[in-house]
Amino acid sequence: MSGDHVTVAREGRLTIVTMNRPASHNALNAEAHEELAAAFDAFAADPDQWVAIITGAGEKAFCAGHDLKQQASGGGMATPPSGFAGLTSRFDLAKPVIAAVNGVAMGGGFEIVLACDIVVARAGASFALPEPRVGLAALAGGLQRLPRNIGLKHAMGMMLTGRRVSAEEGLQLGFVNEVVDGDVLGAARRWAEDILACSPMAIRATKEAVLRGLDESTNTFLEHQWALPAMAAMLKSQDAVEGPAAFAEKRTPAWSGR
């Protein structure tokens, strides 16, 4: 399901979504946002797709954020209900998403990264929320997610100056999981393979519980977590039987995702 600005490839249980506007540093216009929203709608709805990777086309940019040329010409800054790139406000997506950052991730591009669960960056990639430098603010979740990822003072140091952070500094700060010298998409695939070795039901329950639990005290959430949709689905799933059986029989589990 590819479009003019986005390509989608499926490799077994893995969906790879590529922002494909390299001449514009993969900055997103209205059409690109809608195509990305549709791609993630399809990923979320497909029971056979368990993990997604999002990356950018070309060698220079992951995503340079909003297409400011569109905004300057009166095109506005509207995004789909599911947020920037159809991802940053998609709070009900329990399936994991990996960012393969192949170049600059600026503004909304960095907010896409912060909305992902695992971040792999190529050496030479850089990150920033430079919106104040053009009279704007990071309104696609960056103002909320960055402090949670790296702490208030580090986040303020980035957000109030708009300064760029290298992939290596991102690793030190904690919003990057791995920096690679070469094939960043290959590294992201490796992370995906490790996730796919686990039960997708358990992965979804884990992601949902972790993200929901950020807003509650531990003692309160320990009671609430049993009622979460992905947790309830995991506990009554075939995978919850298959996992212990495979362990007892000393074999590789055959996950069904059901």
UniProtKB/TrEMBL annotation:
CDD domains: crotonase-like. Transmembrane segments: none annotated. Keywords: Lyase. The keyword Lyase applies. It comes from the Bacteria. Belongs to the enoyl-CoA hydratase/isomerase family. This is Enoyl-CoA hydratase-related protein. It comes from Sphingomonas aurea.
